[in-house]
Specification:
599 residues, homodimer, 28 helices, six-stranded mixed β-sheet, two-stranded antiparallel ribbon
C-alpha cells in the first residue's frame, strides 16, 4: 500500500540517500569532532576486551575479533543512517557463528576460520540485497516476544558455555543441555590455577558493572568521571590478569592464555569460493542477518528517537551489509550494531558516525601495538568478560510480563526459550518465527465480525450483542472488522452461510465494509461464490460503506455486475432501501429525544 | 478472537457433532432413498473408469483405484457433513502421490505400493488430528490464486504425462520439462496400434464431454436423459476399446493393457510400519492433506450453499481423515472430495451421504464381478479418460483475471504455475504458499495510515490528503487502519518518528485507534518505546477512540501508567483538549453551514 506523500519520511534522495556521510559530513565542525573523539576513546577501551572475548566465543583466534572491529566500523560510518550506533562483534551473533560454523569444521582449523569469514561475506551480501530491494520488512517476521526470548536463551547458553574456561576444563556444545552435560562429565579435571584467576576476575567485573560507579561517586567523583572509570573495568581486568599470568608463570600451572596474536593490520583477502560451503551456510547466514538486523535497528531507533533523529531501515540494511562484507574481506566474522556499546557511545556524546570511524582508528592502533602485551592474557579473563556482559541480556521478567499481557505472545516466547535452550540457536529462532507466523495467521483468519442493528432514532449501526438496536427479520447486516484476504476469506463465507442456514426467513445479506481496507483475489472469489450461492437459495447480497480504493478494484472485476443486491453508500441507505418500514418507524419518533440526550 | 455467540454456527453438539449420520439418518425416508440410489448409480458409472485411471496416474495397479473407492466412501458417509460431496481418487492427489512415492521406490515394486498406502494413512492421521485440534484454518495458508495456479499447472502436467500412454512410448517425469524431454527423446518408437486405439478414444471422449449432450437433445432426448447418457461416455469407451483389444488381439501388436486385476474385495492390512519411510513422506503427506482438503471444502461449501445447508470445516477434516485412513488400511491410496463427481452427484439429486455409501456398494460389486472384463482394457483408454478429465482443470483465463484485479495475487499465481511446471508439484505448492505468506506479511507490514484533521464545523476527523480539514501546528493526529501486531509494529514507530523529526514545533502525537482491533505484545513494546522516545524529545503521546477489548488488555500492562499523554474517548475530545482554540474557532462559525449543506 503506498504511503500517503505527507507521511513519507523526509529522507535525502539520490547519492545522499545511499551515502549519508555526504549529508552530515558537509556540516562537520570542531565541536562535533571533539564530542566524537571523546566517545570514540571510551568505546575503544570497551571494545578491545570485548572484541577478543567475542572472537573466543565464536571459536576463532583473538585477532579475528580485532579485525572485525576496524573495517566494519569505517564502512558503517560511510553508509549508516544512525548517528550513534556502535557496530562490531556482538555476543549473540558470535554464538550463532559458533553454532553455524561448528557443524562444518573443527575449531582451530583453517576451514573453521574460512567458514566464519564466508559467513560474514554472505550475510553482508544478503543484507545489502535486502536493502537494495527494500525488503526491510522481513525483519518483521521476528516478533518482539520471539526475539526477546531468543536473546534471553542465547545469553544463558553463552554464559554457561564460558564457565568451562573459568574452571579450566574442556567444554563445548551448542545447547544448554549439551553444555551442562559435557561440563558435568569433566568436573573432575578442574584446574585450580585457572579458577584462582577466573573467579576473582568474574567477581571484580560484576562489581565494576553493578557497583563501581556508585562506589566512586560516593567517594566524591563526578558522575561522568565515575561512569567512565567504571567502564574501564574490563580493561583493568585484562591488564591485571595478563600481568599476573606473566609474573606468576601461570601458563605452566595449566592456565590457558591467548598466546601469539599476529601484529599488524588485517590483509584484505577473498573468502573461500566454495559453492558447496556457501550453500551449507546460507540458512545460518540468513538467520544471523535477520537477528543482527533486528537487534541493530531496535537500538538505533531507540537512540535516534531520543534526539529526534531519523534512521532509514532500508539504508541500515545496506550499511550493515557493507560492514559485514568488509569484515569478511578483512579477515573478520559477522558483526552488527551492539546494544551496550551503542548506549555508551550515545551517553559519551557521539554526534556523528565519525565516532565509529575514530573507534576503528583506535582499534587499528591497538592491533598494531598492543598484541604483544596480550600474549599472557588468560582466556578465563575473556570468559569472565563475556559472562558479565551477557547476563544483562537474560530477562525472565519479560516472559512473565508478556504472558500476563497476552497468552499467545507468552507461549511463542516460552517456546523460543525452551527450543533454544534444548536444541540450540538455529532451531530456537526457527521455531519462534514459525510459531509467531502460525499464531498470527490463526488470529487474522478469525477476524472480529459483528451483526449490527440500527440504534433507534439515529443513522448509526452497532453490534447487536452490545447495544439495544433494532433489526429487520429478513435482513442481516454483518460488519467485518478486518480487511478481507486469503487468511480470512473462508471464515467470512462460513459466517454468512451460518446465518443463512439458521434463518430461513432471510432475504438480504448486507456486508458493511467500513473497516475493510482491502479485498484480495481470494476474498473476491469468496464473495463471488457467496453471491452465487446466496442467489441459488434466494438471498441477495449487498455491500455498504465500501471505501474508494476497494471500490476501484472491485470495478476491475465482474463481481459488481453479477451482484444480486446493490452497493449502498452507507449502511443507513441500505436499511432505508431494504427495510423502509423499520427505519421510518424508529426514526421520526426518536430523533429529537436522541439529539437532546446527545448534547 | 472468540466469535460472538449469535454468529456461532448452529452445529450439533456431542456425539452428533462427530457422527453427522445420527442427524440425517434419523430422518431418512423412502423418497430420500430413491433419490440417493439414482445419484449413486450415475456416480458409480462415472467412478469405475476414473478409479482405474487415477490409479494408473499414481503409478499404482488398477485395483488400488477400486479399493480407494469403497471404504473411504462409507467412512465419509459416517463422518462427513456435506450431503453431496463425492469422495474418492482424484487427479491432483493422484499426481501428488506419484510425485511423492516416485522419489522413494520404483513403480511396480511392493515398496512403491507400500509407500502409497502409508501416504494415505499418514495423510488421514494428519487430517484427523487437525480436525480434532480445530486447525482447519491452516488451509488458509493456500490463497485462491495459489491453489488455482497449482491446479492449472497440475492439470497440464497430468495431461502431458498421459500422452506417452496414447502414443505407446515410455514416459515418466514429474515436471512438464522432464515429461516433454523424455517424450521427445522417445518419439521414434511410437506404437501405431496404440495410437490407432488411443486417438479415436480421446476424440470420442472429448466429444462426449463437450458435445454429446447437445447432440442428443437435438435428437429429441430429454435434458436429463441426454445428460445421463453423455456421462456414460467413458464407460462406453472402456467397453468398446476392451472389446476391440480382445477382438483384434491388440496386445500382440504392442498395445499395453490393464491385464490381471485380482477379483474380490480388499483385505484390511496395516501399512508398512517403517519410521524412516514415514519421516520421508511426512511433508508430501501434509501437502496432499492440505491441497486435498482445500479442494474438497471448496466444492462442499459451494454445493451446500445452493441448498442452504451447512458444512463444518473442522468435522470435514475428521471425515476426510477417516476416509484416508480407511483407504490406506484397505489397500488404497490418498482420496479426497472431487469436484466433477460431486457436481454430478448433486445434479443427480443426491440428498444425503448415503448416496456415497451406495456408490461404495456399486464399486464393491464392480470389484467382485467386472475385473475379468477389464483384462483387455487398453491403458491408452484410461490415459484418454484422464486427459479429457483434467483439461477442464486448466484455466489460464483465471491468471489473466487475477492479474487484472491484483498484481500481487497475479504474481503469486504465475510463480506457482511456473515453479510447478518447471520443478514439479511439491516445489510448486511450497513456492506458492511461501510467496503468498511473504506478500501477505509485506502488505500487513505496511498498513494504511492517515494524518487526520477536523472537518470544519463537525466532530469528524478525516484524512488531510483527501479532505479540506484543519489541523493544529503542534499536534499531529494519526489514524491507523489496521490492528497493531508484529508485522507492522515497527512501521508505526517509523511513521510517527518521521513526523516528529520533520516537525520541530510538534508537542503532541495522537494515535486514533478507531480501526485497531488488537495490540499484541510486539506492538505494545513499540508503543512503550515510542512513548519513552517521544518523552525524551519533549513530545507527549495520546490515544483516542480505543476499543474496549484493546483497553482491557492495555490495562494489564504498565503502558497506560507511563503514558505521557492521555487516552481520550474520542478524537474530538482529544483535539478539544490539546488545541481548544482550533475546535472553538472552527466549530461555532461553521456548524450551521455544514449542517445545511449536509441535508
Amino acid at each position: 500500500m503506498p504511503l500517503p506523500s505527507k507521511l513519507r519520511p523526509a529522507l535525502p534522495v539520490g547519492l545522499r540517500r545511499y551515502l549519508p556521510i555526504l549529508d552530515w559530513g558537509a556540516r562537520y565542525d570542531r565541536a562535533t569532532l571533539r564530542d566524537d573523539l571523546i566517545a570514540a576513546i571510551i568505546v575503544t577501551i570497551m571494545l578491545i576486551p570485548q572484541s577478543l572475548a567475542y572472537a573466543l566465543l565464536a571459536g576463532l583466534p583473538a585477532e579475528v575479533g580485532l579485525y572485525a572491529s576496524i573495517a566494519p566500523l569505517v564502512l558503517y560510518a560511510l553508509f549508516g543512517t544512525s548517528r550513534t550506533l556502535a557496530v562490531g562483534p556482538v555476543a549473540v551473533a558470535s554464538l550463532m557463528t559458533a553454532a553455524a560454523v561448528g557443524q562444518l569444521a573443527a575449531q582451530g582449523t583453517p576451514e573453521y576460520l574460512g567458514a566464519a569469514i564466508a559467513l560474514a561475506v554472505l550475510s553482508g551480501l544478503m543484507l545489502t540485497a535486502m536493502g537494495l530491494l527494500r525488503l526491510g520488512f522481513v525483519a518483521n517476521f521476528l516478533s518482539h516476544p520471539v526475539i526477546a526470548g531468543f536473546i534471553t536463551a542465547a545469553g544463558l547458553i553463552i554464559a554457561a558455555g564460558q564457565l568451562p574456561h573459568i574452571l579450566g576444563i574442556a567444554g563445548g556444545g551448542h545447547s544448554l543441555v549439551e553444555i551442562l552435560g559435557r561440563m558435568a562429565a569433566d568436573l573432575g579435571s578442574v584446574n585450580l590455577a585457572t579458577v584462582a584467576i577466573g573467579m576473582p576476575t568474574l567477581a571484580f567485573l560484576w562489581w565494576a558493572r553493578a557497583r563501581m560507579k556508585a562506589w566512586l561517586t560516593a567517594r566524591g567523583l563526578s558522575d561522568m568521571a565515575a561512569g567512565t572509570i567504571a567502564r574501564t573495568g574490563p580493561v583493568m581486568a585484562v591488564a591485571a590478569t595478563a600481568l599476573a599470568a606473566w609474573a606468576f608463570a601461570l601458563p605452566a600451572a595449566g592456565v590457558a592464555i591467548v598466546g601469539d596474536i599476529p601484529a599488524g593490520l588485517p590483509v584484505p583477502a577473498l573468502p573461500p569460493l566454495d559453492l558447496g560451503l556457501w550453500a551449507q551456510i546460507a540458512v545460518p547466514a540468513l538467520l544471523i542477518s535477520i537477528v543482527g538486523y533486528v537487534e541493530s535497528i531496535s537500538v538505533a531507533q531507540t537512540l535516534a528517537a531520543k534526539r529526534r533523529q531519523r534512521i532509514d531501515p532500508d539504508q541500515e540494511l545496506i550499511a550493515l551489509g557493507a560492514a559485514n562484507i568488509g569484515s569478511g574481506l578483512s579477515g573478520g566474522f559477522p558483526v552488527t550494531g551492539g546494544f551496550a556499546r551503542s548506549v555508551v557511545n550515545f551517553d559519551a556524546g557521539a554526534q556523528t558516525p565519525a565516532a565509529g570511524a575514530f573507534t576503528a582508528v583506535g582499534m587499528a592502533l591497538a592491533t598494531l601495538t598492543l598484541t604483544p602485551a596480550l600474549y599472557f592474557l588468560p582466556k578465563a579473563t575473556l570468559a569472565a568478560t563475556i559472562i558479565v556482559a551477557v547476563l544483562s541480556l537474560v530477562d525472565f521478567g519479560a516472559l512473565r510480563r508478556t504472558w500476563a499481557y497476552s497468552r499467545k505472545d507468552g507461549a511463542a516466547m516460552a517456546a523460543t526459550i525452551l527450543v533454544t535452550l534444548g536444541f540450540g540457536v538455529e532451531p530456537g529462532i526457527i521455531a519462534g518465527v514459525a510459531l509467531s507466523l502460525l499464531l498470527h495467521l490463526y488470529r487474522t483468519s478469525r477476524p472480529h465480525v459483528a451483526i449490527v442493528g440500527q440504534v433507534p432514532g439515529t443513522e448509526h449501526f452497532r453490534n447487536v450483542e452490545r447495544h439495544a438496536v433494532v433489526t429487520a427479520p429478513d435482513v442481516v447486516s454483518i460488519r467485518v472488522d478486518e480487511s478481507l484476504y486469503f487468511p480470512n476469506a473462508r471464515f467470512l463465507e462460513d459466517t454468512v452461510l451460518a446465518q443463512v442456514a439458521a434463518r430461513p426467513e432471510l432475504r438480504h445479506v448486507v456486508l458493511m465494509f467500513s473497516a475493510v481496507n482491502e479485498v484480495d483475489a481470494s476474498a473476491l472469489e469468496t464473495l463471488e461464490g457467496l453471491n452465487a450461492g446466496l442467489k441459488a437459495s434466494g438471498v441477495s447480497l449487498h455491500l455498504s460503506e465500501v471505501k474508494g480504493p476497494v471500490m476501484d478494484r472491485l470495478q476491475r472485476s465482474h463481481f459488481l455486475a453479477d451482484l444480486t443486491g446493490e452497493v449502498h453508500l452507507t449502511q443507513y441507505d441500505a436499511m432505508k432501501r431494504l427495510a423502509p418500514e423499520l427505519t421510518a418507524r424508529t426514526l421520526a419518533a426518536c430523533r429529537r429525544d436522541t439529539l437532546r440526550a446527545a448534547e
